[in-house]
Amino acid sequence: MKDLNSGAPPMTTEQHDAAEADRCFAAGLAAHEQGRLDDAFAAYEAALQHEPGHFRALHHVAILAYQIGNFDLALEFIGAAITANPGVSSVYSDLGNILAAVGESDKALQSYAQALHLDQHNADALYSRGGVLAGLGRHQEALASYEAALALAPANAQAWDHCARALLALERPEQALAGCERALALAPSADTWHTRGRILVRLGQAEAARASFEQALALEPGHVESRAGHAHVLRALGRVEEAIAGFDAALGLDAQLASAHHGRGQALRQLKRSEEGLASLQQAVILEPASAEYRIGLGSVLQELGRPNGALHCFDAAIGLDGANPAAHNGRGIALQSLKRFDESLACFARVLELVPGHVDATLNRGNVLQDLGQHDAALACYDRVLALKGDNAEVWNNRGNVYEAMMRYEDALASYERAIAASPGYAVAHWNRGLLNLQHGRLADGWRGYEWRWQNEYLSAYREKRNFAQPLWLGKQLLAGKTILLYAEQGLGDTLQFCRYAALVAARGARVVLEVQGSLAGLLARLDGVAQVVAKGDPLPPFDYQCPLMTLPLACGTELASIPAPRRYLAADAGRLAAWQARLGPHLRPRVGLVWSGNPHHANDHNRSLPFAQLARLFALDCQFVSLQKEYRAADREALDACGAVLRVDEHLNDFSDTAALCELMDLVIAVDTSVAHLAGALGKPLWVLLPHVADWRWLTGRLDSPWYPGARLFRQNKAGDWEGVIGAVRQAFDALPRPSEQAVPDTPYFTIT
Questions:
Q1: Looking at the predicted structure, is the pLDDT value of residue 2 above 60?
Q2: Closest CA to 669 of 734, 742, 608, 583
Q3: pLDDT tens-digit readout, 337-362
Q4: Which are the contacts of 276, defined by CB distance < 8 A and separation ≥ 6?
Q5: One-character DSSP codes across 347-414
Q6: At 473, phi and psi to the nearest 5?
Q7: DSSP character at residue 549
Q8: pLDDT (average), residues 89-98
Q9: Are 284 and 291 in contact (CB under 8 A)?
Q10: Is the whole-model pTM more than 0.85?
């Protein structure tokens, strides 16, 4: 039966449903394009109620679900769309996007391949495939995919942007910049300005990069990557405080941005605030544990903070992530050097030089390790190579000076330090080393002036612990009559014991002397001549008019070799402690010899100045009572010490230096390596034999067998580096030659006098 109002036959139910499905889909598509996603979803759902297999509705529900992040729903509907029509290229392209979003990169690439099989001119599939390949680090393939997309759609600004990023990853920054400019000409965006900034950073154009990041932020103030990139550039420009503020702003936008945490930590390192920077660098690693760069940054700051084991762990992890990263191998070598694992350290630097022949830092660091190993000629060859590669460099000239100093070539060492200072007049390390060299060779006036550079030498504890008093520094010119002056310890215990003697000279100028020292020395130095008051470090200070650190007093007093204040003794043990130790030691039946063979293991030169206990064995055949004056022992020495019955141990009774002083007083002779106890024995006026390495600390000068600082001291020096056997042999011969009375005439008096 025909419709009386129309010549067309009536619609079937299926046709009606299809028409309604198309109408609902069209309404959904319009809402979708306007961003009304809830309305779009409802319309697509209505279309599917009319026609469950409606291909376009299924496809667009998948697209909408992908856009809102509901990937499970997106995969369900894209699969249904493919079932409805398996021959549409764009559906496979969208499936690839969904799979890429859920981390299924390989399956995503298969989907893009199918899309391109169906339509080789699918520019969207080519562009999206490039993104997945770039994410996999396959930048050459990504570049080819982007270029193919651009051949089909040259007006795609995003494709130009991503093409530029691939070129940057392939170390082709000039071409990357050209691509970026094409993208900006088509459609300026914060993302592309950010890409341009990154490229300019790689090209070393920091100011231009800063301007690019600022353009990105002008377009999109909340663009967090540009906020962080801008901060990175400010740090490179030396505007470090501003950089930290920038990183903080980036983290305010995204607290999980690893690059901002890393940059903030590096900026704090630049400001010598490594302890603060550590937390930021650790957070970067937590957020991106697969980043070799962040592991290296964390390892470097741990190395700076004196934690080489932690640093080594970080560098090992970085190498596990990127075995061809030269910075990781270089950092590992530095950490191993700190741990005295020199052969392994050299292997690390050799690996760097395999990866990057002529790598300057690795060559320099290799020279430093060879210097530690005493391979002086090889070390010099490394430094010469660095100078050839890098030109005049203060650090390298300084290190050459250190080698010549170890070779006892004074003039060559001095010339090298002066070349370092000429290359960088404010280089404190070279000034300091030149000062030590002059002191070592008896040029005290020049030496004391150079020694003041300790306050600018960031590698020294003095630099980190510098005191900033309101009262003026006394340098010998101001009159002190009627004034109070604070003299204070600033370095080790031995330094305090050696230079506290100057208190009497300062008091002789009419000053009231307040002496601040380490707590373990406060009791002993309370009786020091010229001191009105002793204060333990950390306790409140009384009012004072002037101040001077102990190690500056020789400069202030104009000390030369001939004017070193060297009384036979300037310290004395407490009578009560002396009596207690006499009772503890018992009758004085044989010569008593106090022994010190090792010092603080953390001392920078301890590997040269200390010796194993076992090397003293040749002395123990002597008819003496040997007494250990050490409070602490190394694990390597304990077994030999426990097995040796010739040395009396009293360490459990040594509470402070007042006890050690009383024990020293009861010795006929003290034999010690260069430690604080050697200075204590010298200050007490005891016969003192000091065992010294081939190149000794400056205070023992060079070549002398006596000390102008301690009249009772005799020096036994190695004839070559590491030759402790020769030193012990010389001590044994000297001991055998000492005159002794036939019998002890007066109890508890010295057995012999040593001049």
A1: no
A2: 734
A3: 999 999 999 999 999 999 999 999 99
A4: 268
A5: HHHHHHHHHSTT-HHHHHHHHHHHHHTT-HHHHHHHHHHHHHHH-S-HHHHHHHHHHHHHTT-HHHHH
A6: -75, 130
A7: E
A8: 94
A9: yes
A10: no
